[in-house]
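Before relying on records like the one below, remember that each one covers exactly one chain. Contacts with other chains, cofactors or solvent are not represented anywhere in the record.
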Amino acid sequence: MSKAKWLIVFLIALGMSVPAQAIELSLGGFPSFLRTRARYINGATYVNALSDSQAESLGLEDNDDEIFFVDSTLRLTPQLVLSDSVTIRGQIDVLRNNVWGGVGTGAFGAGNGAGGGCIVGACTADDSFRGSILLGPQTFDLGDDNNNFFNVRMLHADIVLPHNLGFVRIGRQPFDWGTGLWANGGWDPASDLGFIPERFLWLKSFPIGDANLTQVFVSDIVSNNGFLFNGGGSGPSAIGVTQGAGKTFDIVAGATILNMDIAGVNTTIGGFYFPFTQQSNVVERIGLYSALLDLKTDLWRFVYEVDFQEGTLSAGTGAANDIDFQFEMLGRIELYPSWPVKMIGIEGGWSQGNDANEPGIQGNLVPFSPAYNIDQLLFKHIIPTLYNNEGSVQNAFYARVWTHVKLLDHLAWTPHVLAAWIHEQDTTSNLGAGVPLPDGSNGGALVYDDLDRFLGVEVENTLTWTVHPGVNLDLIGSFVIAGGGLNDLQEQAAAIAVGDTVDNATDIPWAVQTRLTIFIDQFLK
């Protein structure tokens, strides 16, 4: 019903605009594209640590931890330019991440609850890969058609107010801030999820000498839906700002941004503040804060962002409700040499974990956004699957280096190396009931123990071929040299799943992906 509601609203807006001769209907504002991906992933889940019989007890065929699928998404970003001051923008996903052939279905069906196959049952549009998590009911949700066939991600009006009173944006819109480590709309073609609230936004810029000060005020209602972090489990360890029961809202929040030129360096200093964020029956109050520093010239850029959370949960009792000041941060240096090396990037980041032995919640509440694309394997798939949370960096700190090299006029190469470590070694997992992860030792009893610190090293290479202007084909190869921490996580998650001792996890998870992206906007210019 919800997708029909948004479709009706959009069609009414379109129909009302037809008589107006001055209006312009076009694609713009955000990328419109058709994306098709084929992925083979090996050793990315805890299944590789199970025996065949243990895997069969979970309903799997065997313990071969191999995942292969092809999926497609058509994303259109129409906009109605009604005047110089009023524009209506939308973003529509058609068959979002639709898996070719469906999931668990076939030509003759298998009687597995999705209507059988295409001959004895019905092929549906509900078969969809929903993002980063590779195991569990959130991965392939056959019963939820609101997120798959037709999905209005964004629909908002942009209005320039008269008399220099500023700018307002009203409706479902992306929340983009700073580096995008937390507030990230996920509108780029490499992303699956993103932060999309229903929001009223007012923005006004003020000149201050040679500088420019921008003030933003917002009021949000955030639906509990698949656009946001919505991991499973129960209890405080499974609750994020947008997880659990009820809708999240803030009464008044805002941001302040100062931009100026200092000795030829474009300097941006900013911060956002959400002092009262609440979620019915789950969150009594959470405060969300961020500080941003961005320095840029033609030759280099330095950007640093740190985000804090504090507050109280409604769930639980006593000190278990308290959210201590927890944080996520990253710093990045970009260098812009001449051809053929277009960019060299160096980055470090940290998402605070939760200590299971301490009262309150110190971390794991709000991870890095799944739309912040750090890599294509470790933080894209493995860690979200192990923590059962649609984030990326969580309970970890990392360092990475990468570069963009122009090999030929139509061929580019992006090598990438990332090393990561676990923050809190005695931590909690959404796979359990808010308890430390067990190591599965002691003759089958689940004994809880610290994790090894080192997660591992990921090596990734991407070749990008510009087949035609506006048509890119990416070939991405990734492998992870697993450290003790990653092996601990996979073995302990496997032990939780079967309630017994398990085998050793694989030392080198790996993946190969192709991604064909057609940028529709470029063909309509």
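The two ends are 35 Å apart (CA to CA).
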